[in-house]
Structures are given as structure tokens and as C-alpha cells.
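Example 3.
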Amino acid sequence: MTDPEPHVIVFDEGIPGFPDVRRFVLTDIVPDGIFQVLQCLDDPAVSLIVAVPWLFFPDYAPELTDLDQAGLELERAEDAVVFCSVTIDPEQQTATMNLLGPFVVNVRTLKGRQIVLTDSDHPLRAPLPLAVV
Amino acid sequence: MLVLTRKAGESIVIGNDVVITVLEIRGGQIRIGIDAPREVAVHRAEIYRQVMEANRAAVRSDRDSPILRTTAGSLERLRRQAESRRGEPEES
């Protein structure tokens, strides 16, 4: 086999705000970088910067409902990969992370969902302790 | 929009398997019970809307920000700098 095709993650419900998009790929921004881009294949305009939340918030513990687990066909916790979207404020050059709506992907089936943690008090805009480096 | 008037204890059936019941009306608040199949997601509208808006803002984010070139190594350096600014961590 030559270069493997990037894994296509299917969000079969779309994501909030973009209900009609389904297929995404995850690509690195820089080698060994901590930020990736979740790029939509169905609509090139839809791409989100994401990162693994535990790099910044080691105690973060989003809870999946049975419904979410069933939708992701998730049988084992270790099959779940979690990442959260990052928003950059262009003026302040600061970044925040959305901990209220994490993305969860089943690495075995490549099914993904954005989980809305309705009954939690996770912040929508958690500041990332990052200065311009 | 269909508008119905209901009293406490009365319900509305949507489709074949969603039942919404007004449980209690007190002051300015109404407690609502929802019976729906497992595959139907139920969200508080304002929370769902917040995530929707956050996604739109995230899509508009600047791809060229130097912040996004942070590597695991540079993050570790930042952490150490922040720690040394806070003074020596106490060893117990």
C-alpha cells in the first residue's frame, strides 16, 4: 500500500449549525502540533480547529448518554477519541475551547458526533493558556 | 406554529411516540416531562443554540494565527515558564 487515504469520519447527524454535512477528515496544522483541522469534505467552507481537551484541562470528564454511545456504536471507552473546537480571537490573539460540545469519534467505526452536554456546566469558551509563541 | 393551551397534568402527543406533559406551573416556571424514544435527542434550546453559534464562530476562526503552530514541545515550554513565574512549586 502507498500513502493511506486519510480516514473519513462520518457524522451522520451533521453538527449543530451545519446539519447537512456528514464527512470530515482530521489533518495536522503543523507536524507535531497540538492543533488539528476538522475539515468537512461535503462543504469545503466548513472546517474547525480542534485539539484534545486534556492537554489543557486534565480533569475534563464529559459524560456520554446511552443515546450518544448507541449512536456512535461505542462499546468500549478506549475506542472513543475526544477533541474540542478552538476559536481564535483575531484581535487579542487568544484562543478558547468549547468544552460544552465536544466531538467524539469511535476510532473503530469512524463514526463521529458532536455531543451537546445539556445538563453540565462545562464552559463554551474556556480560555486556553497560550500566548503567541 | 401550532399553539395549544394546556393545564398542569395535561399532555401533548407528537407523532407516535413523543409525549410532552406539563407537570407543574409555579411562578414564572413550567416543569415539563418528555417521554421520547432513546434515539430522539432532547436539548434545552439555548444550550443547543450556543453550541451552534460556537461552531459557526469556530469555522470563521483565523487559520493563520501563530497560536495554531503550537507543538507539544512549545506547550511544555510555556507551562514551565508559567510555573517559574509562579515561583518554585512547593514540594511536600
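Chain B touches chain A through 35 residues (CB under 8 Å). The first helix of chain B runs from residue 45 to 59.
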